[in-house]
Amino acid sequence: MTPWVNSSTIDHGLLKAMLTERGILAMIIGSQAVAFIYTLSSGKDFWLSLGLVSLFTHANAFITLAFIALVARLIAALNFKTELGITLLSFQSVCFITSILVQYSVFSPVIPIDWQFVLNNSAICGFVVILLLHFMAIYIDNLNTIAHAANAELEALQARIRPHFLHNALNTLAELCHENPDAAEEAALTMAKLMQVAFASGKRHSLAQEISLTRGYLTIEKYRFEHRLNVQWQVEGVDLNAMVPALIIQPLVENAVVHGIEPQVGGGVIEVSIRQNEHKLEINVTNPFNAHSKSRTGQGIALNNIRRRLLIYFGSEATLNTSQKSVRFSTTVMLPLGALNEIPDSR
């Protein structure tokens, strides 16, 4: 299927795509190719002619690019056909006007205007721009294919982490029913509220919501572990309204409970530190660690899930690292602040 057929459903606008590195590079290459071919066919002094023609073609290209940047900034996203028309009309208009203006140059004024020169330039410009737009349509379709595939994977990862969260919470509730029925009733009410928040969240929510969700989970676990579970929070100088991926801190803390507190007879302390470092949000979770103790199976599933989601959201800008010092295991997540604010939430 050709890109032209798919273009009606394009999510990434053509105008914005023209302003990307790939779009600018394609435009520069196209402009220089036209200048080179035109110079070869002219039969005049090659280097002088190439320099002048290159100046003309690149001037046209960048004037048009400046206009497209202005339009993209002032006007909201349009449908593909409208953006296609704006782009083609912009290139043709600039080429037409500059082809007239260069004939009034102080170096070689042409009177009357050579309309054949103007029409030839416009025809060449139109042909090259159509090729450029065809290339950009293919590029945008590829972007959308990658974006849709990443979105589908993200949905799958999100769907996988939520049942995992529910499974562990239900296990806790089941144990409480035998050990402490009164606490089980309170935990069930807390879990109901927690499930509502966890499953209502989209792909992202505020840092404050994520912290609240994590605290709710710890409240449930506290019913089971009692004095064995102690949590120290350190949240300093952070923007609680900053958007973060949903279920990014809670699985880290859950991992710390399952593999750090549960295997320890005497329990231990989980330290949760959230700090803002310039344009990065640093989330650190530290828990007790005993290499000889046996914990539930599945260790690393949550970390791998989070690591993959971070890669989809932020690429190489976000990291998840683990380290072990003596009897403490630490997980650190670094997120670029503000990166999720431009991503619309969907469920």
TrEMBL record:
SUPFAM superfamilies for this protein: ATPase domain of HSP90 chaperone/DNA topoisomerase II/histidine kinase
Keyword RNA-binding: no
Domain of life per record: Bacteria
Classification via InterPro entries: Bact_2-comp_sensor_kinase, HATPase_C_sf, Sig_transdc_His_kin_internal
Regions that span the bilayer: 23-40, 46-72, 84-106, 118-140
Transmembrane found in the keyword field: yes
Keywords, sorted A to Z: Membrane, Transmembrane, Transmembrane helix
All copies of domain Signal transduction histidine kinase internal region, residue ranges: 152-229
Gene3D superfamilies, per the entry: Histidine kinase-like ATPase, C-terminal domain
GO cellular component: membrane
One annotated GO molecular function: phosphorelay sensor kinase activity
Record's protein name: Signal transduction histidine kinase internal region domain-containing protein
